[in-house]
Design brief:
With 177 residues, the chain is of the alpha/beta class. The protein has a single domain, classed as Leucine Aminopeptidase, subunit E, domain 1 (3-Layer(aba) Sandwich), CATH 3.40.220. It has 5 helices and 6 strands, in the order E-E-H-H-E-E-H-E-H-E-H. Helix 3 runs parallel beside helix 4 and helix 4 packs across helix 5. The longest helix is centred in the middle third of the chain and has 18 residues. The model has no long low-confidence stretch (mean pLDDT 95). The protein binds ligand AR6. The site of ligand AR6 has 24 residues, from helix 1.
Length: 177
């Protein structure tokens, strides 16, 4: 459970919806190491942003698992897209928790560097990459809460959950006071 000893909880929001519609400074993409697009949230973001996004991604030369890269948001409401690569889940003993937390922290660090006040995350690694949803939600919410305890930016982080099931899981970890 996230510690409720500061204003951290008021800076975390959960919504059910499509991340491409979020009116925030940056949205995070659950990408792969090529950064050249794919299915799931990655496909949705590229479709909504338009072909200029892929062109900029090509110039980046990929991204290792656990790291992040930033681009413009093009036709999206969001000014930036932060592309991060979560781990493919095998058995939990191949540094998956560490790499997943690192994907969140790397994204937050880029958001801070680019002075983003608002940032939206999908549930990284929990689709095609097979990360168990509860465990991934625990790691996501605690990595974000730990960051917010120590940094002024981003001011607000929204977890955008595609399904009601995912929303309900996150609700357990982001309890209101
Ligand atoms: N808005 C918010 N969440 C979404 C959306 C959306 N529009 N679409 C899907 N989700 P996934 P991964 C949720 O598979 O597991 C891609 O091909 C989805 O329900 O998109 O990190 C990449 O190129 C799930 O909860 O990402 C990589 O190859 C979550 O987003 C690979 O998939 C993540 O599912 C990355 O796999």
């Amino acid at each position: 459970m996230i510690p409720a000893n500061s204003n951290t909880l008021t800076r975390i929001e959960i919504v059910q919806g499509n991340i491409v519609n979020q009116q925030v400074d940056a949205i995070v993409n659950a990408a792969n190491t090529t950064l050249l697009g794919g299915g799931g949230v990655d496909g949705a973001i590229h479709r909504a942003a338009g072909p200029e996004l892929l062109a900029e991604c090509r110039s980046l030369g990929g991204c290792p698992t656990g790291e992040a890269r930033i681009t413009s948001g093009y036709r999206l409401p969001a000014r930036h897209v932060i592309h991060t690569v979560g781990p493919v889940y095998r058995d939990g003993r191949h540094r998956e928790p560490e790499l997943l937390a690192s994907a969140y922290r790397s994204s937050l660090a880029l958001a801070e560097e680019y002075r983003c006040r608002t940032l939206a995350f999908p549930a990284i690694s929990t689709g095609a990459y097979g990360y168990p949803k509860e465990e991934a939600a625990r790691i996501a919410t605690s990595a974000v809460a730990a960051w917010l305890e120590e940094h002024a930016l981003p001011e607000k982080v929204t977890f955008v959950l595609f399904s009601a099931e995912d929303y309900n899981i996150y609700e357990k970890f982001v309890k209101k006071k």
